[in-house]
# Entry
Amino acid sequence: VQLVESGGGSVQAGGSLRLSCAASGFTFSFYYIGWVRQVPGKGMECVSSLYSDTSATYYADSVKGLFTISRDNAKNTVYLQMNSMKSEDTALYFCAAPWGTGYWGQGTQVTVS
# Structure
């Protein structure tokens, strides 16, 4: 399994970023996938996750209505659109797929100032 995140960066509060995660090494379209984030000194937080057929999604309360998860099974890619960002969204964001198996990407840093 290989997961490669991209799209992080620095943004001002209220701004937007779109994270991408390109997956390989497993049948992407079969699996539940998601995004987690880590703030230094704090634990991991599940940000959002998505069923294989996109029939169900999960969002942490802190990002509901602000972030949108999506996937393109043809491209083996999952996205996280982050809007109206806050300083509390500053974290290292990881793609996790297949969900619950312990596979993570290298992470992409998001800084909101």
